[in-house]
Amino acid sequence: MEKRITTPMKDEDVKELKAGDSVLISGTIYTARDAAHKRLIELVDSGKELPFDIEGSIIYYVGPTPAKPGMVIGSAGPTTSYRMDPYAPKLLDLGLKGMIGKGERNEEVVEAIIRNQGVYFAAIGGAGALIGKSIEEAEIVAYEDLGAEAIRKMEVKDFPVVVVIDSEGNNLYEIGQKQYLNTINNK
Asked: Which residues form a coiled coil (predicted)?
């Protein structure tokens, strides 16, 4: 089922999303990969403010390529999410509502998603140029020295994702595998 959401997300928005739902996101999302996540957690641990309002936010795990002339951003395909697993639970506890990446998450992240009414989305790997077309604005808001991995604030319209782990902990990767195994075992 295709759904539309606008950021910032609220608990009610997240509760309506179920593993397997196709979602189009509009509004503000932030980019951050592992180096930026490490710095965010260092800020939190030292009692300092984050460089953006994390409450209800979505972080997209991406290091976009440079923008070509006339473009807002270059290719913006997702990176593998497990590298952010050491940092994600703390950010979820601080109010982060959604994460976009690809690949599985560890049990601590799943528990934090459930505890905080969060959601994990997957963007389609290998479709970075297509995904980039739904990004209308992009500006670096922190850690410019990280280059492609700097934190960007992006305005998106109909950014395509799929719910992989919903707020109840239902995991599309597990559900899909079970459905496939049931199908081939019943032949």
From this structure: none
Q: Which of 37, 39, 105, 152 is catalytic?
A: 37
**Annotation says 37 is catalytic:** yes
Query: At 182, is the pLDDT very low, low, confident or very high (cuts 50, 70, 90)?
Result: low
Question: Exposure string (b/e) for 108-142, b if CB count within 10 Å is 16 or more?
Answer: ebbebbbebbbbbbbbeeeebeebbbbbeebeeeb
Q: Which domains does the chain have, with CATH numbers?
A: 2-185 (3.20.130.10)
What does DSSP say about strands 119-122 and 58-60: parallel, antiparallel, or unpaired? Answer: unpaired
- Predicted confidence (pLDDT) per residue in 61-99, tens digit: 998 888 888 888 878 888 899 999 999 999 999 999 999
Its pTM stands at: 0.92
